[in-house]
C-alpha cells in the first residue's frame, strides 16, 4: 500500500471511514497484489535501465530484471522485455536482492499481557504453558498477514524472515516466511524450521533463573531421548510392549534429537553464548545462534563452534549524557583516555569522569564493531532484527559500517550469507534467474540516510513506497491541518475511546 | 605415593588447561613461572620458614628453600621482609554469579552454579586484592536442597566461564535449614498472593529432606531393576529420567559433598541424623553459629564447620552465637574454616582469622588454617591448594606485614603461578567491561549517592562524612 492512497482520502469524514474500511483484515489483503491501483494483468514486471547488484561485488551497470509469477525470469545487461510485462524505469536506480531477517517476530501478534491469571497451585511444578515451555507450538498458526509489522519491515527492505513465536524459555517452532501473501498460509516458505529457545525465565515459578533453564533443558532433552527410544521400540513391534504415552512437549524434541531440526537459541549476552554452546556440547543438538550481543568477547569460541550466526542489529541505548556529547568533544575525550590512570577520585574528579566517558564510548564501539570482528575472524553471519524498530534499522547498519564492516559485507549478511546459513541459498539471497523475486529498487546507495527504497518486490508482488519529499511538495503546509483533522475524525468514529 | 599420583594428575590438568588457554587469544602468552625470594614463608602445614625462596614453574610449586636458582629468564620477585602465604580459600561465596537462587522449588538439586559463573564480576578482582585465590561459589539458601556449587580459581581476565573452574575439584551441593526455606516456600501464603507449599516449619524441612532422599533411593532401585531386567527382556520399558534425583543419588553414592546452611544446634543434629539414615557422610555445616554447642557430635560424625568470625544476631534463628565458635570447634577436633559469604568480608579474611587469636588464643598456624588448608579440606581440594608445599598449585599471596597483623595489606596475588593482582600497578578502573548504556557515575558519586559535583570542582573527602 502506498501512503498516497490514504492521504487522498483524508478530506472528509466519510472518506476517512472508507480508509478505515480499507485497513480491515481481508480488504487489506485484496489491495496487496500489485498495489496500489492497477489490477494485475500478467504477473510480469521488467525493471529496465537499472544498475543491478546481483550479489555483493557482482554488479551490472545498466541492465534489466524480468520478473514473472513470483520468480526472477531473467537478469542481464541485454534482456528482451516481454510484451506483457509492466515496465518500471530504473534509470538512476539500483536493484538489490531484498533482505532476509535471521530471527524476528514479524507478522506474529504480540500476545496481550494477562495479569489476571490465577496463581499456579504449586510454583515448584507449574503447568508447562505457564512456565513458558511450549515447544509444540507452531508459529505458522500464530502468523497474521494483516500485522502492521509486515509492511514496516518490508518498507525497510526485508523480503523474507525466519519468524518465531513470542514466549519465554521454549516458545515454539519457527518458520521461514515471505513478507507478502494474501493470508498467513500464502506467506509460509518453509515451516517447522527450528525449535526456538531463549533464556527467558518463568515469572515467579520454576524455572526462573538461567541455571534453572539450563537444567530444565537438560531434563527435557534427556527424558525426550528416553521416550523417543521407547516409541521407536513400540513402532518396530507393538506386541507385548507397554504403550508409550504421548505428550506434546517431549515429542516436539524428537526431530531435534534426530538432528533434522535445529535449536535456534537467542543469546543476549556473552555469557548466554557460552551457556547455549555448553548445552549443545552436553546434549548434542544442531545449534543456530541469534542475537550475539557482546560476541566480540567470544570470537574464538564461535569460530571453533561452527554454528550459523545471526547478529543483532540492535545497539546499546545511548544514555542521556552520551546523546548530549558533540562529535569533536568525543575525539578530545578519546585522545586523552588513560586506561592506566591512578588518581584518587577526590583529587581529580574531572580526570576520572573523562576516563569513564572515554571508556563508555570505546565500549559502545566494541558493540558496533562486533559484526566487523566476526568478519575479520573469517566467520559468515546473517542479521536478526529481533527487538529493533524497523525505522532504526538503517541507522544501526550505518553505525556497524562506521565501525569497520564493509558495505558489501553488510549487504552479504542481509542477503546471500543469510540465505545460505538458513539453507535457502537456491531460492533467495541474490538476483539470479530462477530465484524468488524479492528485490529492492533504491534511488541511491543502499545504506545512505537519504536513500528511498521506492519499490520492494516480495514473491513477485510490487510494493511502492514513493519518496517522501515528492509527496511533501503537494502537502507542505497542510501537514498540521491534516493531522488535526484526522485526530478529530477518529474520535468521532470511536467515541468510546474517549469516555 | 598418593601425592605423587595426584601431582601428576594436576600436572596433566594444568597442561590441558594451558592447551585450552592457548586457544583463547587473550591468554596465549600467560606467564606462570615465578621465583619469590627471601620471604617469610607461612607454609601452614610445615611451620614458618624465615628468609626462604619459593619457585613456581608451569603453575606448580617446584621448590622451597634458600638460595634457589632461577632457570633462565624466570620472573623473580624480591620479597625481603615480606610474608608469603598460600592463597586464601573462601568456602562460602556468591561473587561472580549471574544468578544465585532458583528459589521457585524446595528441591533444585538439578541446577548448577557451573552454568552461571560470571567471569566479569568485579568481585573476583576485589577478592584477589584480599589474597583470595579460590572461591566456593554457592547456590543461595532459599531451598532445602539447593543447587550444585562451583569451586573456582580467581583467574581474573579470563572470559570463558569454563577457564575459571577449579578443574578436578569434587562436586558439592548446597542444603539449607531453618527460616530461609520455610519463609521462601511455606509462608508465601500469608501475604495472600501465593499458595504456600512445604516446608513451613522445621519439621517440614526434615520431611522434605527425607522425602528427597527416599525418592532418590527408589529412583536408583527402579533403574537398577530396569538394567538387570533388560538383560533378559531387551524390550523392557525404562523408568522416567529425572535430573533432580540423579544428583541426589550421586550424593548418596558419595560423589557430591554437602554444604549446608545452618544456624541452630537442634537443626545441625537433625541433619546429621537424616544423613546417617541415608548413608551420607560428606558434610560441612555452613554458618553453624551454634556449632560450638554440638562440637563433639560434629567431630564424631566427621562433619566440618565453616563459620563467621563474629557475625550473628541478624535474624531470630541466629540471635545467639559467640566469637569463640571457631576456637571451640577447633579444640574439639572439628575441621573448621572461616568464610566470607560476602563480597566485602572476602577482602580481609585474614583479619577475620586473626579474630580467633583475640577470642580463643589460636596459634598463628591454627588461625591461618581456618582460611587455607581447612576450607581446602572441606572442598576436597587440599591435595592441590591450602598450603605451601612442593607439588601444590602456585596459589600464593604476598603480604607486607604478617597477615594476622591488623596492618597487613596484600601486595601480590598469584593463581597457578600467574600474577593476577599487583598493588603497585592497581589501576583506578579494573573492570573487564562497562555498560555503555549506564549513567555516568564517578566512584565518589556511586559511593555517596550525591550527584551534585560540578565538573572541574575540587572536591575533598569531606563529602563522605557530610552524608552521615
Structural summary, described in words:
- The complex is a heterodimer of chains A (499) and B (468).
- With 499 residues, chain A is α/β, with parallel strands linked by helices.
- Among the domains of chain A are: 4-98 and 428-498, Urease, subunit C, domain 1, CATH 2.30.40.10; 101-258, Metal-dependent hydrolases (TIM Barrel, Alpha-Beta Barrel).
- Chain A is built from 19 helices and 16 strands.
- In chain A, the strands form 2 sheets. In chain A, strands 1, 2, 3, 4, 5, 14, 15 and 16 form an 8-stranded mixed sheet that branches. An 8-stranded mixed sheet of chain A has the order 6-7-8-9-10-11-12-13.
- The longest helix of chain A has 27 residues, at 210-236.
- Residues 1-34 and 473-499 of chain A have low confidence and may be disordered.
- Chain B is of the alpha/beta class and 468 residues long.
- Chain B has a domain at 436-468.
- In chain B, 29% of the residues lie in helices and 20% in strands.
- The model of chain B is unreliable at 1-28 and 453-468 (pLDDT under 50).
- The interface between A and B is large, with 70 and 63 residues.
Relevant terms:
heterodimer; A: 499 residues; alpha/beta; Urease, subunit C, domain 1; TIM Barrel; eight-stranded mixed β-sheet; 19 helices; 16 strands; disordered C terminus; B: 468 residues; 13 helices; 29% helix; disordered N terminus
Q: Which H/E pattern describes the elements of chain B?
A: HEEEEEEHEEEHHHEHEHEHEHHHEEEHH
Q: Which stretches of chain A are low in confidence, meaning pLDDT under 50 for 5 or more residues running?
A: 1-34, 473-499
Beta strand % of chain A: 15-25%
The number of helical segments of chain B is: 13
Portion of residues in beta strands of chain B equals 15-25%
Gyration radius from CA atoms of chain B, angstroms: 24 Å
Structural class of chain B: alpha/beta
- Counting copies of identical and different chains, the oligomeric state is heterodimer
Helix content of chain A: 25-40%
Task: Give the biggest sheet of chain B.
Answer: 8 strands, mixed
Q: Let me know the number of strands of chain A.
A: 16
Amino acid at each position: 500500500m502506498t501512503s498516497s492512497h490514504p492521504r487522498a482520502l483524508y478530506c472528509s469524514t466519510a472518506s476517512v471511514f472508507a480508509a478505515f474500511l480499507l485497513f480491515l483484515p481481508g480488504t487489506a489483503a485484496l489491495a496487496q497484489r500489485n498495489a496500489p491501483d492497477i489490477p494485475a494483468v500478467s504477473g510480469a514486471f521488467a525493471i529496465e535501465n537499472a544498475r543491478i547488484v546481483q550479489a555483493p561485488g557482482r554488479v551490472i551497470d545498466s541492465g534489466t530484471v524480468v520478473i514473472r509469477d513470483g520468480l526472477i525470469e531473467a537478469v542481464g545487461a541485454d534482456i528482451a522485455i516481454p510484451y506483457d510485462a509492466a515496465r518500471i524505469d530504473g534509470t538512476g536506480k539500483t536493484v538489490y536482492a531484498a533482505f532476509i531477517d535471521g530471527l524476528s517476530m514479524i507478522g506474529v501478534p504480540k500476545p496481550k499481557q494477562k495479569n489476571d491469571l490465577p496463581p499456579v497451585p504449586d510454583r515448584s511444578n507449574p503447568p508447562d504453558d505457564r512456565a513458558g515451555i511450549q515447544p509444540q507450538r507452531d508459529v505458522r498458526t500464530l502468523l497474521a498477514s494483516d500485522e502492521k509489522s509486515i509492511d514496516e519491515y518490508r518498507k525497510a527492505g526485508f523480503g523474507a524472515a525466519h519468524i518465531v513465536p513470542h514466549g519465554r524459555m521454549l516458545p515454539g517452532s519457527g518458520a521461514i516466511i515471505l513478507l507478502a501473501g494474501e493470508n498467513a498460509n500464502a506467506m509460509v516458505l518453509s515451516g517447522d524450521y527450528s525449535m526456538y529457545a531463549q533464556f527467558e525465565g518463568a515469572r515467579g515459578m520454576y524455572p526462573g533463573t538461567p541455571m534453572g533453564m539450563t537444567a530444565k533443558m537438560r531434563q527435557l532433552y534427556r527424558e525426550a531421548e528416553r521416550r523417543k527410544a521407547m516409541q521407536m521400540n513400540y513402532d518396530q513391534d507393538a506386541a507385548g510392549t507397554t504403550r508409550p504415552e504421548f505428550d506434546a512437549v517431549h515429542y516436539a524434541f524428537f526431530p531435534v534429537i534426530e538432528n533434522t531440526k535445529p535449536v535456534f537459541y537467542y543469546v543476549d549476552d556473552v555469557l548466554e553464548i557460552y551457556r547455549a554452546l555448553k548445552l549443545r556440547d552436553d546434549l548434542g543438538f544442531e545449534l543456530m545462534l541469534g542475537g550475539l550481543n557482546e560476541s566480540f568477547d567470544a570470537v574464538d569460541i564461535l569460530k571453533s563452534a561452527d554454528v550459523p550466526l545471526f547478529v543483532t542489529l540492535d545497539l546499546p541505548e545511548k544514555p542521556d549524557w552520551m546523546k548530549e556529547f558533540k562529535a569533536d568533544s568525543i575525539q578530545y575525550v578519546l585522545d586523552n583516555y588513560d586506561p592506566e590512570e591512578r588518581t584518587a577520585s577526590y583529587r581529580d574528579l574531572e580526570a576520572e569522569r573523562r576516563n569513564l566517558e572515554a571508556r563508555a564510548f570505546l565500549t559502545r564501539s566494541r558493540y558496533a564493531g562486533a559484526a566487523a570482528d566476526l568478519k575479520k575472524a573469517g566467520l559468515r553471519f546473517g542479521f536478526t532484527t529481533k527487538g529493533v524498530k524497523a525505522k532504526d534499522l538503517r541507522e544501526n547498519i550505518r553505525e556497524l559500517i562506521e565501525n569497520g564492516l564493509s558495505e558489501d559485507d553488510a549487504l552479504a549478511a542481509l542477503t546471500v550469507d543469510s540465505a545460505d546459513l538458513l539453507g535457502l541459498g537456491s531460492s533467495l539471497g541474490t538476483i539470479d534467474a530462477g530465484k524468488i523475486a524479492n528485490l529492492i529498487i533504491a534511488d541511491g546507495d543502499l545504506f545512505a540516510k537519504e536513500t528511498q527504497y521506492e519499490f520492494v518486490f516480495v514473491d513477485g508482488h510490487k510494493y511502492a513506497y514513493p519518496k517522501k519529499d515528492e509527496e511533501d511538495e503537494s502537502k507542505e503546509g497542510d501537514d498540521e491541518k491534516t493531522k488535526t483533522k484526522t485526530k478529530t475524525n477518529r474520535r468521532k468514529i470511536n467515541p468510546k475511546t474517549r469516555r | 605415593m598418593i601425592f605423587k599420583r595426584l601431582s601428576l594428575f594436576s600436572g596433566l590438568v594444568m597442561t590441558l588447561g594451558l592447551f585450552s588457554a592457548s586457544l583463547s587469544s587473550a591468554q596465549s602468552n600467560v606467564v606462570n613461572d615465578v621465583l619469590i625470594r627471601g620471604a617469610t614463608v607461612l607454609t601452614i602445614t610445615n611451620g614458618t620458614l624465615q628468609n626462604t625462596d619459593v619457585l613456581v614453574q608451569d603453575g606448580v610449586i617446584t621448590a622451597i628453600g634458600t638460595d634457589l636458582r632461577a632457570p633462565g629468564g624466570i620472573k623473580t620477585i624480591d620479597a625481603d621482609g615480606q610474608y608469603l602465604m598460600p592463597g586464601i580459600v573462601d568456602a562460602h561465596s556468591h561473587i561472580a554469579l549471574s544468578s544465585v537462587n532458583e528459589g521457585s522449588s524446595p528441591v533444585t538439586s538439578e541446577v548448577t552454579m557451573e552454568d552461571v559463573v560470571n567471569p566479569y564480576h568485579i568481585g573476583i578482582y576485589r577478592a584477589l586484592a584480599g589474597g583470595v585465590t579460590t572461591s566456593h561459589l554457592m547456590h543461595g539458601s532459599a531451598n532445602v536442597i539447593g543447587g550444585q556449587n562451583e569451586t573456582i580459581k580467581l583467574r581474573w581476565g579470563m572470559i570463558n566461564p569454563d577457564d575459571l573452574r577449579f578443574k578436578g575439584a569434587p562436586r558439592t551441593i548446597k542444603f539449607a535449614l531453618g527460616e530461609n526455606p520455610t519463609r521462601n516456600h511455606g509462608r508465601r501464603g500469608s501475604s495472600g498472593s501465593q499458595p504456600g507449599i512445604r516446608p513451613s516449619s522445621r519439621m517440614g524441612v526434615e520431611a522434605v529432606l527425607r522425602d528427597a532422599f527416599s525418592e532418590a533411593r527408589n529412583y536408583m532401585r527402579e533403574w537398577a531393576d530396569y538394567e538387570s531386567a533388560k538383560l533378559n527382556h531387551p524390550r523392557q520399558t525404562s523408568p522416567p529420567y529425572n535430573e533432580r534425583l540423579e544428583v541426589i543419588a550421586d550424593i548418596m553414592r558419595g560423589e557430591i559433598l554437602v554444604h549446608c546452611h545452618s544456624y541452630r544446634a537442634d537443626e545441625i543434629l537433625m541433619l546429621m541424623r537424616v544423613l546417617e539414615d541415608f548413608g551420607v557422610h560428606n558434610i560441612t555445616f555452613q554458618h553453624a553459629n551454634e556449632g560450638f554447642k554440638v562440637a563433639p557430635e560434629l567431630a564424631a560424625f566427621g562433619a566440618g564447620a565453616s563459620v563467621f568470625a563474629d557475625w550473628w544476631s541478624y535474624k531470630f534463628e541466629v540471635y545467639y552465637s559467640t566469637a569463640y565458635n571457631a576456637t571451640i570447634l577447633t579444640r574439639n577436633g572439628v575441621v573448621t574454616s572461616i568464610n566470607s559469604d560476602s563480597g566485602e568480608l572476602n577482602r580481609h579474611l585474614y583479619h577475620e582469622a586473626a579474630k580467633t587469636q583475640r577470642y580463643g588464643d589460636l596459634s598463628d598456624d591454627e588461625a591461618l588454617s581456618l582460611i587455607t588448608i581447612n576450607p581446602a579440606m572441606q572442598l576436597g581440594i587440599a591435595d592441590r591448594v591450602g598450603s605451601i608445599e612442593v607439588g601444590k598449585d602456585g596459589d600464593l599471596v604476598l603480604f607486607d606485614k604478617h597477615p594476622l597483623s591488623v596492618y597487613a595489606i596484600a601486595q601480590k596475588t598469584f593463581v597457578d603461578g600467574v600474577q593476577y593482582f599487583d598493588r603497585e600497578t592497581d589501576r583506578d578502573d579494573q573492570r573487564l567491561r562497562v555498560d555503555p548504556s549506564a549513567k555516568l557515575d564517578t566512584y565518589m558519586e556511586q559511593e555517596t549517592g550525591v550527584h551534585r559535583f560540578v565538573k572541574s570542582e575540587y572536591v575533598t573527602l569531606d563529602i563522605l562524612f557530610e552524608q552521615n
